[in-house]
Records
---
Amino acid sequence: MKFKRIAMKSTKLITLLIAFLSLNACKNSTSEKAASSPPSPTETQHPVNGQASVTDNVSDPNALQVAKSLDDFKTLVVAIEAADLENTLVNAGPLTVFAPVNAAFNKLPEGKVSSLLEPENTSKLAVILKNHVAPANYPLQQLAKEAKKGRKLYMASGNYLDVVQKEDDIYVGGTKIIKTVQVSNGWIHVINDVLIPTEEE
Amino acid sequence: MLKLTTAMLSAATLLGSCGNNSGNSSGSNGALRSSNAEKVYVAPGEYDEFYAFMSGGYSGNLTVYGLPSGRMFKEIPVFSQFPTTGYGYSEETKPMLNTSFGMVPWDDAHHPDISQTEGILDGRWVFINGNNTPRIARISLKTFETEEIIEVPNSAGNHSSSFITENTEYVVAGTRFSVPVPQADLPINEYKGKFKGALSFISVDKETGRMNIKFQILMPGFNYDLSHPGRGKSHGWFFFTTYNTEEANSLLEVNASQNDKDFIAAINWKKIEAYVNNGGGTKMVANYAHNVYDESTHTATSTMEKEVLTVNPADIPGAIYFLPTPKSPHGCDVDPSGEYIIGNGKLSADLTVHSFTKMLDAIENEKFDGDAYGIPILNYEAILAGSVKSGGLGPLHTEFDNQGNAYTTFFISSEVVKWKIGTWEVIDRKPTFYSVGHLMIPGGNSRKPFGKYVVAMNKITKDRYLPTGPELEHSAQLYDITGEKMELIYDFPTHGEPHYAAAIPADMIRDKSQKIYRLDENNHPYAITSPDQAKVTRNGNEVHVYMSMIRSHFTPDNIEGIKVGDKVYFHITNHEQDFDVPHGFAMIGANNSELLIMPGQTKTLTWEPKKVGVWPFYCTDFCSALHQEMQGYIRVSPKSSSLDLTWTLDDE
């Protein structure tokens, strides 16, 4: 229990630090520009970091925006950012994201999360995260149908996940879907475990 | 302490990415920005280095852009009526849009491909497919006009088209939807096994470009997505990606994504050509339109063809093989040497590269993993040259430079990835804005690419331009690819939805471009070559006006004796013989369009007057200082009127 709290704390610390530092970094470059010449409209209005940085307060929120808005996904969001996958999660998709809550990451062996956040492990982290995303449109009903037909889910990692129905619940990769949220580019199904690809275990 | 370091490190990564993602390409450095501006700047009066032909998608047409400037030069009407010029409205061009379904005034134009000789762009024609009502069009690069459209029978969703073989022997059209062949009243759930996918090889006459369906291969009922010819060593073969090898007929988003691998179909067309030349194949009753525009009469004719030669793969063993390729491959691309066949598995992270040499060896040594409907499936490992693991998601299409590199678009991760042919190593990844579909390098689908620029054609625009309501023109990005790393240098909007593009050095077509039509070569049956030939004739309620136009009047410009209920044909010849002096013709209340008539050309507009009165017509193209004086009147009398026809200019 003690470990978990520490892990959580450090995750939060990382989030804060990252948020602070990256904000600072971007500010710096703008202020440098500002010092030499006033920024032109193109410089201030055109995001150069991809679709995730598009400002849009009108459309329904996408998978990334929903994940970012909920405290339950703080760790997941840090991991998505560390793996440079923000732009993928705002894509037209359709995407089905099996989103582990913070507590799911706490179940991993000690040091696993912080190790995956190391820069040299970015691609490993990306594969794990992609193992939670299917390039497909799977509302709960469709998952039930897939389970009934005995089909597997093809994930962006290249692996397949089992989907089964037990009574009224749907299980993917052995873990139960505890909640479902529709997002503009697909579905988020909330889960309590991190789905580590088999070759990673 | 350790954890703090970790945090610092990952923060540092992000910090780095803040500047690095934008890179040199579009970012904050003013000096680089201005050098990028120089790279795309074409000074007033100077010319672009390349002409790019971009499909219009749902516009049905083809647009011409300059590279690197991104300036749009022209929209060429192909499958869609175009009131701007009267294409598809004028009597001369209506037959171009005729099909076995009657007139279809629109289509979904997808994949332009420029004619080649010995695998090198020759700048004679550009071909493009109509996806919806299957058709292939040929456009002259001398006149930039659509010269021919042939309908493709037994096909539906003409998507794996219109790619040409390396001497333009054939333009190839493959069906996306499999359908009953011949069409029949069948329950849809009898799809599996009963539906067929027709791959059509349309021969192209060496001199005239005239198209003719040589043969159709009736393949298993998969979806045929894209295709490319073999070249160099693999000339004589054609490769098609397939998906839905599951043969699903409903909810394809789920049901067509079940198989771990679909196929690339490798077709030895030279073998099939020899087979049909020796009397092989089965003639099938068909009904399809073949529309040809004759430049000397300025008139198109539509002929219904009644027969097509079909080939059953089972009758010609050894001509067709399946190459297993992961995850619903989209693009099917062949490198400039002809050795590598690339499957862009659109749901996968990786690219699959097959070796032509290994493919031949696997065929020779029968390294098969069973068959599908009698067509041998080659062993995947036996033909695999390598796979490209980029970290991107959703590869769609690959083109090539002349330095041994390949460039692939990734839709889901919105990027272009540059990789090395042979080592499969990833050299560079650059973001696109956003969700890129296809990309294009001038000559990038030939033996001789011009590896200076890559154009990325994006599906999502979002905030790239000022908002213009819910509908936005798609964005394209131009990258300089002369260095080790790609550099994003420009952004420009495109018209319609470019699904694909082809480009050629401007030098190869600029000087061949036609400037006027010679009046003394005008063989239009209603043309008049001198204003004194102007006349108006009546045959029942059909009235023919033989009219000429020159700066700044029509001859005649006053016509009387027209009656309500008449059908009036204005046959108008532009008597200018001066480059870029077209005249327009617009008639009040005409239920079609205007005409835009080029120097030396004759076009015909039909008008059915409904109201008694005196009705004006005028020139719509600002042709001269006295353009506003270029006008005329038609007097329309009641149906019962016995007023004789008269026609005058200046009361003469």
Note: Chain A touches chain B through 53 residues (CB under 8 Å).
---
Amino acid sequence: MSAHATAAHPPLYAGGLRSWLTTVDHKRIGVLYGVSALFYFVVGGVEALIIRLQLASPTADVVGADTFNQLFTMHGTTMVFLVLMPLSAALFNYMIPLMIGARDVAFPRLNAFSFWTFFFGSVLLNLSFFVGDPPDAGWFGYANLTSKQYNPGMGIDFWLLSVQIMGIASIASAVNFTVTILNMRAPGMSLMRVPLFVWMALVVQVLMLLAFPPITVAFIFLMFDRFFGTHFYIPSAGGTPILWQHLFWIFGHPEVYILILPSFGVVSEVLPTFARKPLFGAPFMIFSGILIGFLGFGVWSHHMFTTGLGAVADTAFSLATMLIAIPTGVKIFNWIATLWGGHIRFRTPLYFAVGMVGLFIIGGLSGIMHASPPVDIQQHDSYFVVAHLHYVFFGGTVFGLFAGIYYWWPKVTGRMIGEGLGKLHFWLMVVGMNLTFFPMHFLGLDGMPRRIYTYATDLGWERWNMIATVGAFLIAVSVLVFFVNAARSLASKTQAPADPWDAATLEWTVSSPPPEYNFAVVPTVNSARPFWLHKYGPTRDISTRTKAQGTPAQPDNPPTRIDLPSPSSWPILAALGLALLGGGALVGLWMVLFGAAVLVFCVYRWAFQPLERTGHPTFGPAPSGGSS
Amino acid sequence: MDAHATTFGVPSRKMAMWVFIASECMFFGSLIATYLSYEGKSLVGPTPREILNIPLTSVSTFVLLMSSLAMVLALEAVQTGNRRGARMWLGAVVVLGGLFLAGQVYEFREFYHEGLTLQQNLFGATFFVLTGFHGAHVTVGVIWMVTLLVMSLRGQLGPERSLDVEVAGLYWHFVDVVWIVIFTVVYLIQ
Amino acid sequence: MAEHPTHETAHAGAHASKGTYWLIALVLGILTLLEVAVFYVPLLHSVIVPILLVLSSAKFALVAMFFMHLKFDKPILTTLFAGGLVVATAIILSMMLLFGTIGPGAHM
């Protein structure tokens, strides 16, 4: 290739605001998801800190009861829908096409639409703060706390409409990524050669596809109850609030796996890389992940043992729940077996991955306790449950996602990130997390209920509550260390190499950050660890071999002309129309109709706009013929 | 989009529609589950037995089934480059879909006059929301079919775009099979 | 009809002939007629539920296999559809059991 062609390769993140608003590049959309999620991580974290300040001492008066209800509702909703899901989506967006050897997702513009729909939905949720009426019924919004009779304000409407809108974004994204993973793999990448992270992502997409419709329906009923006076959840007309609980948890339990499986996937990539060994029992890991996802649909009523479902139902759901411990145990054993005998390099991603395994075990064990109805009834609605779910979501998901952030940071930013600050971040977070959430086990067993805004002096709960609050602020400090580390990394000038960790998967075969077209030559895959095969030849233990060759697998510039999808304004405008349509329910019919008109107009313009750049310079040597 | 470049040899848009349909199974499944869970739990009338009009709905069920026939024949015509056939059968889908919707509007009005409203009882709420969302899906389908018909009339719907029609057809047939279930579960099994 | 298309022939517009479509539509019409007929025959009221479920399942399967081409298309599409269908059916049955519409506590 001539040196001339290299000039046609613009930096990935070049361009102004407009280029970000209209981008359809999966890597840029991944960055958008990541930045939004980290921003909301701070918002949700501040909400948590205020909650902990209020609970630090008995009869405190930092916030009142109403504000407290709003804070824990917004904290839960924010962390689930605005932080953990989009942070996973960030990694999915950026990494999946790279890891399967594709140039983009199956539907790049739908991908942009998903992000902007999520984004406008998240803005709508937080607008409730600005009208002074945030939702206050908990992130699971149990019926009749949400009924018009008991909750006449607009907070619940903000909550249900925004989560509904974000649900549409999730379904659109799930369709897109299911098809991408199934249908866009590089030649030779059979399903059993798909990296574990991508496999777990596929299970997550299927869970989103099947779990979001029930919550959509539950929200439709709630919307009809609140806006049109129906009685879906109203006992006086024969309805039952339990219907909400069923529909919510038919969504809600798979949602738990939607939140944890991405982290499982990250850990399954990080451990082999830093142990310099292939993942132990990879096929078992894949099938365990599928089984966890499948069983996840059959256990929802274990959230409802206290509603009195009857002995048969309790037994069935209890047994199904206990079954999930088996594939989960398989995963944990295989992670440990992957580390066993490995030549471990102690880098920050490994710290977080190992931390995830350890902390998740604690959350998993208390989860098995809840599978037993008598135990569950004892612990229901107590701080023991708060401890359990935070060990799963914080110890499991947040640690796993941070492992992913540190692991892929050089690939995404093109800069290395500090090891010293990274490890400081890790240790502060481990200590802070355990100080915050471990005492909640004791508080729960001692009878402290969830969602109380204050407690009396003579209950003996002060000490553990104070320790939990100190721990929460330690977590805040650790997050601060992360942001300092990130800022220092971004400000540094040293270019990260393409393959800083000597890893096995395809994303490390391209430059950091990757070129817009990802792969100059679409790779042909002959192994589950294609880059190790390329570098070391066919050996299972790479630590004993020296590199066969150090050359990158990809040429610097593409030998052929590559057509890429062109930027488009219609996805973001269509998402805006959808948000106006949904948010319009709070304003008036005219706005709903206006939003619908915008949506329909944009969808038509989008449908009839050609996907690929035409008459636009493409990369690589100028083609001899005309444009395509 | 090229089928030959995809892993399964299936065009991605077609696979996406099937994935979406799988998701829609859960949407209608949740609505049907609620309808059945609340069956017979209304505190006041009217009840399904008193109000459901089986002859009318049988006819509109038949109309929707025949629209599916028109749909496959339209696809066949587009694939073979038969432009006249494509217009005729796409037009037939639009007309039959429109007839089904007209039947539903008539049915809803009748029920309303007989005292069954969204707010009247659980039957009203679950019935109108279930069949209403099905009707909304049919409406989207009719708009989609009109779009294809206009494309065909403009000469933009040659055999190279048959995938557009096939994907739209999958959606249309799915809406039809949902109605097959609703007709049986709501109307015939009371 | 071939039971399973080979890989080579599966893509190229593999589907039934026009005559088959008309035949399927005829069968669908007849099945619908039967359903309505069953509804109006008092003698059958004790077994109406199983009969109707069989008839409508047959209609469902015919539309999915022939009009939606599942019979002639790649198995992955059937797998995807079946996944959603099976989970949805399981949820419907579980909810009916939990709410006492069917099962031991029915019609209380």
Note: Chain A has two domains: 26-552, 576-622.
